[in-house]
Structures are given as structure tokens and as C-alpha cells.
Amino acid sequence: MKNQRSDSYIFTADPLSAFDMEKLEMVKKTVRAMNKEAKTAYGYAVRRAEYHGEPIPKAPTRKRVRLMGRGPRKQAALNDYGRKRAYDAYLPQRHAIRFDVYIADVR
Length: 107
Prior knowledge:
This protein has 107 residues and is an alpha+beta fold.
């Protein structure tokens, strides 16, 4: 996958496709498990550092699954706001025809 703008991009999902929705649920469960494991490991590391008098380690970076709506924006913006450029930067999920799925760090 070269010539990508983002390293966080995973796949494009069609909300009407059962396969894509199952795949999305699997990604969400995986990220949830990764975050839980990182939190548990961090708790052990903090307790170990406190016990041995070492500096407390930096908290792990959590991950999140983000869905970005894709599809026609002009008609949706006209219906919602009466102007066609309202959704140039962001398309709400209720208007999306498909979703780009990203896994990104939580800041």
C-alpha cells in the first residue's frame, strides 16, 4: 500500500455489507483488547517501579478506531444547512455511503 497519505488507514467498509461490518467489529475488539492489555501491563510496571524506588514509567499510548464517512457531501449539506460547502471537511456518519476505518493514537 504505497502512496498512502496516512499510516493509520486500515480499510474501507460498506455499511450494507455484513462481511465489512463483521470485520469492523473484529478490529474494534482487537483494539479494545490491546488497550486493556497495555493498561494492565502499565499497572504492573508502576507497582514494580514504586516497590523498587525507580521512576514511574510513561503511560502507554492508547489506540482508537475511527470511522470517517465518505460519500456525496453537497446534497447532505444542502439538506442540513442550506449551503453546499458545509461538509467539505467532515461528513457525518448518517450521510455516509461508506466508511474509511483508521486506527490512531489517542492524544
